[in-house]
Amino acid sequence: MIDRRTAFIGLGSVAIAWPPAARAQQQPAMPVIGFLSPGSLEADTRRMNAVRRGLAEIGYVEGQNVAIEYRGAQYQYDRLPALAVDLASRQVTVIVVVSLPGTLAAKAATTTIPIVFSMSGDPVEQGLVASLVRPGG
């Protein structure tokens, strides 16, 4: 039979060993979506609301299990490369872009972060992807 002192010492040892083990089993970091726009947040309100609705439909709610980092160039297209580099340096999970200049800036800023873009025109012709079937890097 274990006396109280032995039980207390045993529990104390477990408590000391527990914190590192608990840290190793923590939840993964919340995914962060980088949103790059040539415009402004005010101008992109409808688009951002649509993104939020789409995310909610698949179980992601901003602030609960996903974060969104918005970067808008305020219609100063020469700012897009620096904003894309900023998002890439923050190691966002994905970069969402809504213009050809923004997509080109994001492509130049990273080769490891996936880029989702919306644009008119042919992305193969623009040099954004190798092909539609196999977009590549």
Tell me the number of strands. Answer: 4
Gyration radius, rounded:
23 Å
Helix content: 25-40%
Major sheet strand order: 2-1-3-4
Structural class: alpha/beta
What are the SSEs and their pairings?
Layout (H helix, E strand, L loop, with lengths): L3 H21 L7 E6 L7 H13 L9 E6 L7 H10 L4 E4 L2 H10 L5 E3 L20
Parallel strand pairs: 1-2, 1-3, 3-4
Helix pairs in contact: 3-4
Characterize the structure shown:
- The radius of gyration is 23 Å and the shape is globular.
- Helix 3 (80-89) crosses helix 4 (100-109).
- Helices cover 39% and strands 14% of the residues.
- Residues 4-18 have low confidence and may be disordered.
- It starts with a helix and ends in a 20-residue tail after the last strand.
- With 137 residues, the chain is of the alpha/beta class.
Supply database-style keywords.
137 residues, alpha/beta, four-stranded parallel β-sheet
Brief rundown of the structure:
With 137 residues, the protein is an alpha/beta fold.
